[in-house]
């Protein structure tokens, strides 16, 4: 659970932190004489915006794309070569990338530095998710539930911690520097707290590990050759060594029944988050526009945490049902943005919480049944390859959200 929390922490925090600093830099460019606050409200960029939706001039989907495209690239290509990199090296690299992202964004003096920091956070999160999901096959299946709970908690804790420190008067720069403790916790958790099974290749490549196992088997056969012939001949048809490229492609074809529903859930989910949330604004209530958006994000993360922690009590084999429900949710909220028929913010809060419940349930159930129904030899690769589903959906959602945001803001 702790590793899941640490892995996703930089990813979720960067969406808000990088946005704040980008807004600060834009404000400085527009009015050099104005002392801009580091935490900028949505209304800062809207003073000259006549749209009925009180639009932020920089769509949140733009930062989302910087936060997800490197992850998508890693998840598409890494499963074919990642077995050459030992797990210890992967985790160390992820921790360094996460720490670098916090440092870059906190000290950024230009837009490109902020975006580069977001990209580093994306690399850390993408490689970490792929690696830790593969790592679960070396432990009991209950570990997957802990991973799901940890990744869900990352969003909720990250949102509360970031907002709380900002509310306490700290700048985003100081807040991000404080959060450098998270990559350190990831390093300590993996290398000092996690009890690894003997079968886990820590600092050796997979090929070296297979060679060692074959050597041990041969030695055992030689030691036992004085008595009877061993019964291990029944396993002669079982392939040994790492999966071939053709085998990996065959496994990927079998994963589409899991990956496609997961991708649809995340496409519609992040279309709501990055394309519609900031447009669901209610005037003249006790919450400002920025506060409404923060509460939307917090309730979404709460729903994700609850559903990702539900695997022990509820398992959903037909994930496509969750895809359909999430699509209906997105269509309803899209119509609500267009025709403004929702009378109160509390209804939006309810739908956002429901959205998070659907997304978290789709994620944890998808990987539970992949782990349960995949052959032992293919399980480690399958868990890594299937993780592309959510990233692909999020990327498409970001691309769709940009023109949707532009359309509504032009009304």
Automatic annotation (TrEMBL):
The keyword Transit peptide is assigned to this record: no
- Matches recorded under Pfam families: CLN3 (PF02487)
Membrane topology summary: Multi-pass membrane protein
Question: What are the alphabetically sorted keywords of the record?
Answer: Lysosome, Membrane, Transmembrane, Transmembrane helix, Transport
Under what name is this protein listed? Answer: Battenin
What is the scientific name of the source organism? Oreochromis niloticus (Nile tilapia)
Transmembrane segments annotated in the record for this chain? 61-82, 89-112, 118-139, 151-170, 176-196, 319-341, 347-369, 381-402
Q: Which family does it belong to?
A: Belongs to the battenin family.
Q: Which InterPro entries match?
A: Battenin_disease_Cln3, Battenin_disease_Cln3_subgr, MFS_trans_sf
């Amino acid at each position: 659970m702790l590793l899941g929390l640490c892995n996703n922490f930089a990813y979720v925090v960067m969406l808000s932190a990088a946005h704040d600093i980008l807004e600060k830099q834009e404000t400085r460019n527009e009015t050099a004489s104005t002392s801009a606050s580091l935490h900028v409200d949505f209304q800062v960029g809207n003073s000259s915006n006549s749209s009925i939706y009180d639009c932020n001039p920089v769509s949140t989907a733009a930062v989302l794309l910087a936060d997800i495209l490197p992850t998508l690239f890693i998840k598409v290509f890494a499963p074919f070569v990642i077995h050459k990199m030992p797990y210890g090296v992967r985790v160390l690299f992820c921790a360094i990338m996460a720490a670098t992202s916090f440092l870059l964004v906190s000290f950024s003096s230009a837009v490109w530095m902020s975006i580069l920091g977001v990209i580093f956070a994306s690399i850390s999160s993408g490689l970490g998710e792929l690696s830790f999901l593969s790592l679960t096959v070396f432990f009991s299946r209950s570990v997957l539930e802990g991973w799901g709970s940890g990744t869900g908690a990352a969003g909720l804790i990250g949102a509360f911690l970031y907002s709380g420190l900002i509310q306490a008067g700290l700048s985003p720069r100081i807040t991000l520097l404080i959060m450098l403790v998270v990559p350190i916790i990831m390093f300590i958790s993996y290398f000092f707290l996690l009890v690894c099974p003997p079968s886990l290749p820590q600092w050796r490549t997979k090929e070296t590990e297979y060679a060692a196992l074959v050597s041990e088997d041969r030695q055992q056969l030689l030691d036992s050759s004085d008595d009877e012939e061993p019964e291990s001949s029944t396993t002669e048809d079982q392939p040994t060594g790492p999966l071939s490229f053709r085998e990996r492609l065959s496994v990927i074809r079998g994963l589409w029944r899991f990956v496609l529903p997961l991708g649809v859930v995340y496409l519609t989910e992040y279309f709501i988050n990055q394309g519609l949330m900031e447009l669901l604004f209610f005037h003249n209530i006790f919450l400002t526009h920025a506060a409404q958006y923060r509460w939307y994000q917090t309730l979404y993360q709460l729903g994700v945490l609850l559903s990702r922690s539900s695997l022990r009590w509820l398992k959903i084999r037909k994930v496509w049902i969750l895809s359909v429900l999430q699509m209906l949710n997105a269509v309803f909220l899209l119509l609500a943005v267009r025709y403004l028929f929702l009378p109160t913010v509390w209804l939006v809060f309810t739908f956002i919480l429901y959205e998070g419940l659907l997304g978290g349930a789709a994620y944890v159930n998808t990987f539970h049944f992949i782990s349960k129904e995949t052959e032992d030899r293919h399980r480690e690769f399958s868990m890594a390859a299937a993780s592309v589903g959510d990233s692909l959906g999020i990327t498409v959602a970001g691309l769709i959200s940009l023109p949707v945001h532009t359309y509504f803001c032009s009304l």
